[in-house]
Design a protein that fits this description.
The protein has helices spanning 39-43, 47-56, 74-85, 89-112, 117-130, 136-139, 155-165, 169-182, 185-188, 192-201, 204-218, 231-239, 244-250, 255-258, 263-270, 276-282, 290-298, 310-315, 334-341; strands spanning 4-5, 11-12, 18-24, 30-36. The protein is mainly alpha-helical. The chain has a two-stranded antiparallel sheet. It has a two-stranded antiparallel ribbon with strand order 3-4.
């Protein structure tokens, strides 16, 4: 926002109170955060004006993979998610936190299998941000955070996100990895020079786990929707084997999670999995009872799920938590492309 001077030399600001914070990083790059009095003050009366502003700045609203830029896209992106998936802004924050926890668990498990995806990502992402001057909202990773890094959302939404995430296997894997690294001498030692020497002497497995933890601490929260997705997160999922079947081992569609979704969405999830009679009967039950019925069906309990759909039910992951398939093949050199075209 560039304020305009009004009468008397004062600044003319949009309706509503604004607080802006500018944090200057060690490399001199500014990170700006805004707090607005209301969504209307930030976005106006609709999403069209916001999209128009983006296009004026040469940004393709549909194709951009950094739509979560809070200056423009948070409102329109949340509105699009609500329209397609029926989830509120607070529920979306829960999904974003849970999806990050899934990636963190995948990085830890990759390290435990002698993989170094987390270590490589920690080094690469920080270099892209600090040396390449990329925005963390493009890279999908920012400065390491001790907490849950949920700045800008309400305390109620943050508490709900933590309560939901802590129920999942992914969180326990991540928590145990944090505890393991926190107990190492190179973390607990009071003499920092000696502690660093201890880290240098640590085994390869410990260093891989440390790299995975560091990478997990840098991850931004995302979701599989325009405005909240990062191609780097899709790449991490692909490199660590994060298909839907493996994600279900780390995440369970609990009754508490399904209760966050509207009845229409629950029925849409159930429709391809249960028979027509069951689906019709579920459409008539009270909304408060449906999450439990669907959770039992997705967990393989009862006879609601048709035999031909049991595998689909066992592998079902909410679309906002899923990761996109991505081609990691490097592009062919220009000379080879020209030769192939000839």
């Amino acid at each position: 926002m560039t304020p305009k001077k009004g009468e008397g030399g004062g600044l003319t600001l949009p309706d509503g109170e604004i607080v802006a914070a500018i944090e200057i990083g060690e490399a001199g790059d500014p990170q700006v955060t805004y707090w607005w009095e209301s969504r209307k003050a930030k976005f106006g009366t609709g999403t069209g004006a916001v999209a128009a502003q983006a296009r004026e700045r040469g940004i393709d609203v549909k194709a951009s993979d950094a739509l979560c830029d809070p200056e423009f896209y948070a409102g329109p992106a949340r509105a699009a998610v609500k329209e397609e998936h029926g989830v509120s802004a607070d529920v979306l924050e829960t999904v974003r936190s849970m999806r990050r926890e899934l990636l963190r668990a995948r990085l830890v498990e990759n390290a435990q299998r002698d993989g170094d995806v987390g270590l490589d990502h920690a080094v690469w992402s920080q270099l892209r941000v600090l040396v390449g001057r990329d925005s963390p909202r493009v890279v999908g990773a920012g400065a390491p955070s001790r907490g849950e890094n949920m700045v800008g959302i309400s305390a109620t939404a943050a508490d709900a996100a933590r309560a939901q995430t802590e129920q999942q296997v992914a969180h326990h894997i991540w928590r145990d990895a944090i505890r393991e690294i926190a107990a190492e001498n190179f973390i607990t030692g009071e003499d920092l020079a000696v502690a660093f020497a201890e880290y240098r002497r640590a085994g390869a497995a410990t260093k891989r786990l440390a790299g995975a933890v560091l990478a997990g601490l840098t991850l931004e929260r995302g979701a599989n929707a325009p405005g909240f997705s990062f191609t780097t997160h899709d790449a991490l999922a692909a490199l660590t084997g994060g298909d839907d079947a493996s994600l279900r081992r780390l995440w369970e569609p609990t009754e508490a999670f399904l209760a966050l979704l509207p009845k229409s969405q629950l029925l849409a999830i159930a429709e391809p999995l249960v028979g027509p009679e069951t689906h019709s009967r579920w459409g008539k039950v009270k909304a408060a009872l449906l999450p439990g019925l669907l959770a039992e069906a997705l967990a393989g309990g009862g006879n609601a799920v048709a035999a031909c759909s049991r595998q689909a039910a066992a592998e079902w992951v909410h679309p906002l938590l899923a990761f996109r398939e991505i081609d990691l093949t490097p592009p062919a050199p220009a000379a080879q492309v020209v030769e192939a075209a000839a």
